User: Which sequence fits this backbone?
């Protein structure tokens, strides 16, 4: 296949290079990634200015924009390619539970939801065993043509930070959840003005059996299908009843 590879940790990220080395064994790959770390960019597109594409000596391309920008340009004519699938990652750290709302890694895969094959976002729950995550990604991509999900769905994959032969297997999971994030961190800029750092992610709230948190904690790869349809369908009747109270 013709694969478009992206990430949110930037074009020079270690996880990206591991992913490419594995996937180029079986497929044609084109790398389009942000020119810097844009973790937490979510699905944002750069609309207030043009974005620029820079080629690198290793054949990668970087963009001075978001992960979603990278895939948007890659599938909409900025490069002379026709990707069949997007693989995003390998993220340096987990994308579990509520993390998917903020993740640029997940967003890059979601931006490829129009393509022929379901796209995949891959994250390592740690920062050591990138080769393990890359091998898992290669295995999943090899069988992606057998996957029949509803249109526009993607797969979110989290790999425990273990040597490949110590991973116990793969589990299909639902998203767990976190508590509210930690307090912001007060700071001061060089001119003496008050500013803030975003605080740490919230503590894990739901890591019960069947969640992505539970799977990786017990040594399994977590595989969660995600949809861009964020409507809470089971709540429609409740909302209809509630609206009857409008005057």
Assistant:
């Amino acid at each position: 296949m013709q694969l478009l590879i992206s990430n949110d940790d930037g074009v020079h990220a270690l996880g990206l290079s591991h992913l490419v080395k594995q996937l180029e064994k079986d497929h044609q790959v084109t790398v389009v990634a942000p020119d810097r770390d844009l973790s937490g960019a979510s699905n944002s597109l750069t609309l207030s200015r043009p974005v620029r594409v820079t080629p690198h000596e290793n054949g990668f391309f970087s963009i001075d924009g978001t992960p979603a920008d990278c895939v948007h340009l890659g599938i909409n004519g900025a490069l002379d390619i026709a990707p069949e699938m997007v693989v995003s990652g390998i993220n340096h750290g987990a994308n579990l539970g509520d993390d998917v709302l903020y993740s640029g890694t997940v967003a890059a895969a979601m931006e490829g939801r129009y393509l022929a094959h379901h796209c995949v976002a891959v994250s390592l729950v740690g920062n050591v065993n990138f080769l393990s995550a890359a091998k898992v990604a290669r295995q999943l991509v090899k069988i992606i043509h057998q996957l029949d999900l509803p249109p526009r769905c993607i797969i979110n994959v989290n790999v425990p930070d273990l040597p490949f032969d110590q991973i116990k297997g793969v589990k299909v999971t639902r998203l767990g959840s976190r508590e509210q994030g930690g307090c912001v961190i007060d700071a001061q800029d060089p001119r003496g003005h008050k500013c803030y750092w975003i605080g740490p992610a919230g503590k894990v709230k739901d890591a019960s059996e069947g969640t992505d948190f539970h799977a990786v904690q017990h040594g399994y790869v977590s595989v969660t299908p995600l949809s861009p349809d964020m409507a809470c369908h089971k709540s429609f009747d409740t909302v209809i009843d509630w609206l009857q109270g409008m005057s």
